[in-house]
Fold this protein.
Amino acid sequence: MSSIISRRRHPAAGYAAVASGLVVAGVLYGTFSGGGASAASSTQDSTQVAQGHSLFLQSCASCHGVNAQGTSQAPSLIGAGAAAVDFQMSTGRMPAKDLTAQNERKPQVEFTQAQIYDIAAYIASLGGGPSIPSASDVSTANANTALGSELFSTNCAQCHGFAGAGGALTYGKSAPSLNASTPTQIYEAMLTGPEAMPVFGDGTITPDEKRDIIAYITATRAETNPGGLSLGRTGTVTEGLLGWLGGLGFLVLIALWLTAKRKDHVKAESEHHS
Amino acid sequence: MSDDAVKIPPALDGVGGWLDDRFHGAKGVRVLMKKVFPDHWSFMLGEIALWSFVILLLTGTYLALFFQPSSAPVMYHGSYTKLDGIAMSQAYQSTLNISFDIRGGLLIRQIHHWAALMFMVAIMAHMLRVFFTGAYRKPREINWLIGIGLFTLGMIEGLFGYSLPDDQLSGAGLRILFGVFEGIPIVGTYLMFFLFGGQFPGSDIIPRMYILHVFLIPGIILALVTAHLFIMFHQKHTQMPMKGNTEKNVVGQPFFPYFLLKGQAWFFFIFGTLVVLATFAQINPIWLYGPYTPLAISSASQPDFYMGLLEGALRMMPAWEINFLGHTLSLSVLIPGLLIIGIFFTVAALWPFFEQWATGDKSFHHVNDRPRNAPVRTAFGVAGISWYLILLLEGANDVLADHFDIPLYTVTWIARIAFFVVPIGGYFVTKRICLGLQRKDANLLTHGVEIGIIRQLPNGEFIEEERPLTEEERAVIESKHVFEPLPTAETVDSNGVPAPSARGPMGFARKVANRAFTETIAIPEGHGNGHGEPGEVEEGEHAAIGGGHDEH
Amino acid sequence: MSETPEEPLGPRRVIGTPSPAPKAVDTHAEPDQSAFSAEPEDTKHAKNAERVVAAFFVLAFLAGCGFIAAYIGLEIGQSTTPKGANAVVAAMRSNYALGTCLAIALLALGAGSLIWVRHLTPNIEIAEERHDLRSAKEDRASFKRDFAEGAAISQVTRRPLVRRTMLLATAPLALAPLVLLRDLGPLPQTSLRHTVWRKGLHAVTLGGNRRLRPSDISTPGSMITVIPEGYADDDDALAKAGVILIKFAPGELHIPTNHNGGTVVSSMNWTVDNIVAYSKICTHVGCPVALYEQTTHHILCPCHQSTFDAANGANVIFGPAARALPQLPLMLTSEGYIAAASDFVEPVGPSFWERG
């Protein structure tokens, strides 16, 4: 101890103090927070629900409660349905690592899709809820992109932007960009209304209409920009910036060139009376 | 006579003679040919606006050959198959047609829109240049007013232009227009019903905007631009304060051939820049916005930037509505929608006259001011710019919130406070900076320019060597115009009567303004190589390190 | 001037003009001659510059030809087979090709012209005298005299009857253009106070035109935009009648019974199965207000961020809107569909003077 104290004025002392503080905090956090699950299931049950149950206990119960009944940190999942689980976990939002304003899409590396289905099956067994859409449910063959554009404009664009680039919500939340979402995830999000997003059940937006919307989204994000660079598909803000900085900036440089003092400056004095 | 002059070819000579027989033009046109224009890069900003306008006329005419200004609904079956089968207006359909079915149509459409943006950018940049150099002073006040008029008309013209395709974004803008103006007391609803031919959206607004956009407003703009140029030609351009430039001359190069060639080069560069933008930067992708329907809206809905200050004002304003006697006065809408823009243009328009009133300066000014030599004007301009920018940024508040991860309401609160604090603070800081630069100039006159060589004196003191200013540098610094303070209420004539202009509350206001305007750092008399003390508001300072005078 | 007539005179190459004769035409005709030569001083430099300028102009020529070739060669739109995504790609290719060629042509012309004026012309600076803009005293005096004389001749000052009746005559004609504008549109009268909603009119989804039962919108947190049945093609009606339905969990919805001058303007009685209907037209300046956050129950308008609390009668909690969103009274028809129980009880949308 005295060797530490005697070095307290060492140039590196401050850095050492911060670094050790970070290490201690990290160890404490890792110990007490719900940690990452191991990929291998530790149970010997063969049913999907049982496997899902044990995965749930490992990774989700610390916030959602041992019986998925919810705690102060996380809502109840009874009745949430398999689709919600698949959406939240396949987009990497769950398990949530910290409780900021909202959970962002993250690369999902902790669970295999099979494990996600297991957990989804377990949650579905607790209280029903929307089920995971099948491949034909989200197939956009024969979908009507024109109708999809109408539905998207009316129900989705106000949060997600006219081209799905995302948008701001209140209190630090935001509606995410749709560029990385799979058709299944889009379907599930409409069906289950994750976090602040409203629920668009099959009674309000039918499965056919959902497919039209998905077709519109996938067509739009894949669509090339015929007019040049898209400038983020955010609209006029970036256009105005480019006009000032790019347009005026370049022209001012040309003007400086055009009017620069010539090297062969010869001043011929001549008075013209006109 | 220069023996290098070209022999005029007989054909040209003949035509010239034929015209001169009919118009007596030789003398007048000769005067125009030989007119001298000064050469400074900042004098070219207005021409960006001019050539952008010409390009707008050219590309606009082309677009008008294909555009259908009608709200009549049609079912779309064109090349952009993502929208195949939905109802849209003919205006929107013809715009899709131009973009996807007419070769060069998308390019011309984008050149047109970028030219509109650059027109407004150039007007603002040019206006700021004129403002900060004081080029609006007598005899150019009318040209300044014409310029403000062009600014206003440009905004309206652009608003109508981007609303013509009847897409989701611009339709929302029209909805806001309707909503803002219907709130005007007494006449608001009538005004909007007349403009739109009934309730919103109606089917009259597109064709009405069209005729205003392609005929009436461009006609007025063209007339004003012509007047603007003619006045500038007649009064001759201002020039920068330099050696040899006086109030009685114009130093530069003759219009023919120099400014003709420069104008040609400038036109091509401007046009080329617009085409580069139109080729590589997509603008107004209406096919992504979709046709206008009254119940759809997108996040990040902003108008083109030159309407941004209105948008920001509307977002910034807290809720305020007054209900009385069966009437509603919606101040949440009227203050930002009308008052803000009204103040902006009124102050801008009246500024030359206010400055003349405050300084009592009735002389002609053909030589520009350096911004530092007019601290109140420069500081006011900086305050104005910061105020405008805050409004503009607040107009993009949801984009800023999303991209910089700032909570949405926080952005608005920052803007609400900055709206008052930043311009006022900016004024004071800028004024002090200007006076500091003036002090530096005065020091340069007395002590010369430091040349970076440090010398040690025998007594151990270190000084930096200086060189006296060159003639050119001296002329620039000495160009500063000195204002005489106006007579105040305290000064009385021989009969004890105070000056009439100084009496009453207006006289007091004038005195305050005048005192602000005439605060300056005096140019030292007897400036030479270093022994004069600059006449200052505060005690003198020394430029050299160590405080010693220049030794040689 | 010390140039002899035998020296080569004038620019070396001027297209279209004959070779310069020893005696050039004097276009100045002034006694005091300008002391500059039309040639820049360094002729080798000028020759280089000339080549550079020519190269730029040739580049511009080639780019211009490229533009025409690209126009002819690149098909777009209906001419591409198959249509669809290819139409967008074809438009992109055509835009890039045409735009690049045109940009190069213009910028090369600009660069060539710039180098021309900066390197091929002599560098002169001229000072021209500014004449007083103010006219001479005599000119002003004679102007005033002639003007006064003309005014006197016209008798307009002497004969007030003529003058005043002329003004009288022109007054209605000056007003006539304003009068002619009257028929631009109908008078508002009471049209802003009502929408097309009435008792029993079904709410249908926008796009699908489907009637809704409460079971269709049964999950708490659900939201959907609905319109009055039969008005899907009437934009004027939709611009006021658009409505959002929001489903709440039991106990979440607390709509106060608000009164406004004796009229109930919001009420729990107007909900059906915890489904509430609010006008989709923002009370600020009329944008569709549709950003619903089911966790906070906030309805956010994306235009100017007016925020309404859907659980509490859509009262304003932030932003410039000064009034809550009007609530549409709902009822269930005998077949169990959601329909309006009546029109809105207050005008929807932005405030106006006569609103009350």
Observations:
- Residues 527-552 of chain B have pLDDT under 50 and may be disordered.
- Residues 1-34 of chain B form one domain.
